[in-house]
Amino acid sequence: MAGGRPAQFYRERAEALAERAAGLKRLADAWQPLYQSLSPDQKMRLRVVTVRALEGMRTAVESRRMDMDDEDISDF
Length: 76
Description:
Layout: H1 6-37, H2 40-74
């Protein structure tokens, strides 16, 4: 954990999450005009693609967490 410094680890994690949140907000702001211009059918297809993309990201995150857990266990 960040060289045994839990407070530093949490601080760095919070900063990374804040940067990611700001990036996601910028992305949402950029997509809003495009989304409003889509037909109802296009909006439905975009929703389906979005759900599938999120599922893929969730799987990747879970895999990464498992890899990190495996590394933590091997440290003992």
